[in-house]
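In the design runs reported in the main text, the only information available to the sequence generator was the tokenized backbone. The following block is the verbatim input for one such run; it is reproduced so that readers can re-run the procedure and compare outputs position by position.
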């Protein structure tokens, strides 16, 4: 998982935690608001109805009371309240659970307040009384709309924040890929890369240090290559000098030994058979040493390399291989001009 995805996830988790905390406070306030609204509505209604019944004219009390109760029976439920007539002869209808269309049940459960019920006795033959019950459905619906809008706004803010953070971090961390690629090039021996400055000061410092490192390594590589070429040149010069020494000094000495042995063999051929035999053995040993020296000179610095060049020397080496390894045949082809190559 990349760094910017991890940072986006961390920011999202922290934001969601803050949003849940804010939502908990919001739900607490919403519960208090619902309770306060329905309680105040029920209390005010109870007081008003009591006042109306108490202020009724005694002369026309029963008539006004009957009209009032008739209107009350035909009145629709008021906001936050359920008002109806009940009788002592019949059981009071049970309270129904609060259900608000379009509002989740969990939200209703969290913000619903304790139900209140007021009863106002009426002095009449039917022994009726007025029941005032709180109904927070309308208030819960309003609070839910506000809470839903709050949640939607927060989610939009989270989405925008994540998008902004993701693209911003991508831009800020873009040099990381260049730094990794630069390190890969350094690992492969390529020190020609250069990393541009980053947006973050930390990555800028890393890029500068890596650029300094590649500069030092590039300089060191150039110097090492020069030293290697110089060392190879010195070695080749020493090998050439040693081959010439073997050819000039040791070759001439062996040739002189062979000539002396041949002369001794001729002078003692008739008089001293043992001396002649010894001289012949000296000649054979001289021939063997001469062949061995020629082999050493060929391995150190073939004469053909200095006299005819690289291509004939390679061809001679491969011909020698074919002569000594008859089970494997090698062919040699060369094209181009190699005269500009140094030693």
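Verbatim output:
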């Amino acid at each position: 998982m990349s760094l910017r995805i991890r940072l986006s996830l961390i920011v999202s988790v922290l934001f969601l935690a803050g949003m849940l905390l804010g939502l908990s406070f919001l739900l607490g306030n919403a519960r208090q608001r619902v309770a306060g609204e329905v309680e105040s509505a029920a209390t005010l209604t109870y007081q008003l109805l009591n006042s109306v019944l108490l202020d009724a004219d005694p002369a026309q009390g029963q008539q006004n009371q009957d009209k009032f109760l008739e209107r009350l029976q035909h009145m629709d439920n008021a906001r936050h309240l359920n008002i109806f007539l009940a009788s002592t002869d019949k059981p009071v209808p049970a309270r129904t659970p609060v259900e608000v269309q379009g509002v989740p049940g969990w939200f209703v459960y969290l913000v619903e307040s304790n139900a209140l019920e007021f009863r106002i006795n009426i002095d009449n033959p039917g022994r009726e009384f007025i029941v005032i019950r709180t109904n927070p459905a309308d208030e819960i619906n309003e609070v839910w709309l506000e809470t839903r809008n709050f949640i939607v706004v927060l989610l939009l803010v989270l989405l925008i924040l994540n998008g902004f953070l993701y693209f911003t971090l991508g831009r800020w961390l873009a040099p990381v890929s260049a730094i990794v690629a630069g390190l890969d090039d350094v690992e492969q021996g390529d020190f020609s890369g250069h990393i541009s400055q980053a947006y973050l000061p930390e990555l800028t410092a890393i890029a500068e240090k890596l650029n300094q490192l590649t500069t030092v390594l590039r300089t060191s590589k150039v110097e090492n290559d020069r030293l290697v070429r110089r060392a190879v040149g010195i070695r080749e010069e020493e090998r050439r000098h040693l081959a010439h020494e073997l050819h000039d000094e040791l070759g001439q000495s062996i040739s002189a030994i062979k000539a002396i042995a041949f002369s001794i063999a001729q002078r003692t051929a008739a008089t001293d058979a043992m001396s002649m035999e010894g001289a012949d053995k000296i000649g054979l040993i001289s021939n063997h040493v001469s062949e061995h020296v020629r082999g050493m000179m060929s391995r150190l610095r073939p004469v053909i390399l200095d006299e005819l060049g690289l291509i004939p020397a390679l061809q001679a080496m491969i011909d020698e291989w074919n002569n000594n390894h008859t089970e494997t045949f090698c062919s040699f082809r060369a094209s181009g001009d190699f005269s500009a190559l140094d030693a």
